[in-house]
Amino acid sequence: MSQINVDTIRNSSGTGGELSLTGGDFSFDSNTLFIDSSADRVGVGTGTPGAPLDVRASGGVMLMSAPLMEGINIVAGEVNATTNLDLLTSSVHLFTTASTANWTHNLRGDASTALNAILEVGQVCVVTVIAALGGSSGFTAGLSVDGASQTVVWAGGEAPTAASDTTGYDLYQFTVIKTGNGTYNVFGSTVGYQ
User: Fold this and answer.
1) Fold classified for 73-193
2) DSSP codes, 39-105
3) N or C: which terminus of the chain has fewer CB atoms within 10 Å of its end residue's CB?
4) pLDDT digits (tens, 9 = 90+) for 69-113
């Protein structure tokens, strides 16, 4: 097999697009597409991808594929036994054991990554918590982001004060909008499934 030792490949006139082969990373058309080989990440519109696929180009994303699926974090435990929800794991968390008390969750990237570090101003994330119900089940009593308590604006104007029933599931959905550094608007809703 042959090898060409070059740092950059350009067209014959020396102008236009180029393929940069320095440092093991690949940059196509000044970061229109960037492959970070050391972090195993791909950036579209960025030379510093912050996720396995980081798209920062304007104009939206078109996915011409069906079905579109998302992973879920299934926790074989009580919703009130877990205080941190790691959004780098999943934005949907299903707790399969009936809760026995109220809970306040903390949203974060993971144990070493703050949500503030991965969510930019003007971006939104939607978090879903599904809690199995039992005879002494509680409800969500609050929400924090990176350890800071948040004011949740609830659909219908009232925060939950009890579980919806003693069987089935309660589903909580939180829409978190980053409005500034460490500042968020949080909207919540809940519905019971029996």
Assistant:
1) Jelly Rolls (2.60.120)
2) TTEEEES-SS-SSSEEE--SS------S------EEEEEEGGG--EEETTT-SEEEEEEPP-S-EEE
3) N
4) 889 999 999 999 888 999 999 999 999 999 999 999 999 999 999
